[in-house]
Amino acid sequence: MLEGIAVTALGTMSGTSLDGVDAAVVETDGVRIFGFGPVAYRAYTADEQDVLRAALGRWQDDDTAAAARIVEDAHIAVMAGFRDVAVAGFHGQTLAHDPRGRGTHQSGDGDRLAAALDYPVVWDFRSADVAAGGQGAPLAPFYHFALAKWIGARAPVAFLNLGGVGNLTWVDPACADPADPGALLAFDTGPANAPINDAMRARLGRGYDDNGQVAAAGVPDMACAGCIPR
Asked: pTM score, two decimals?
């Protein structure tokens, strides 16, 4: 990408909550946001989720071909509905993550997607970040910086993402560049939807807490505020 020249970029995400594939278009030069385009979603079926869940914790030298095929097919299905795409981003599906040990395993082959869709696909972001000495997550802070500029933020702003795992990005929009000292602070906050989904599945046989209805029906124990659950 060339700064100042907007292209149509398609971003995709299949998170640790294993719900499905999100896709969205952004008009960008890789530094700034110029506008947003259409979005789409393709849910994983219950059988597909079972295969993906069984593959969690497995590495590249394990047999995860069935999981990879599901991830690739689901992405191709949702991405095929977009036209005039200059470049796409393919995160893949995180099966294992140990940045200070074995590295990271993002299931899915971006080359297969590019061949099927006939446009360039950039992929395996986490592996490159871990190889460079990073933690492989979170990966969205530079986008959050561009988003703070897009909305015209005048004071520091925080972006909270509650996926399977939660992460937070603090942005100082007074900085000119996201690489400037003090421009960004980003980190994972810990588990978010993943353990809630696991609890819903184990206790109630549901994949997730739809609209937080189960949680909203509870009564907080204010005497135990701040205590550690046992």
From this structure: 0.86
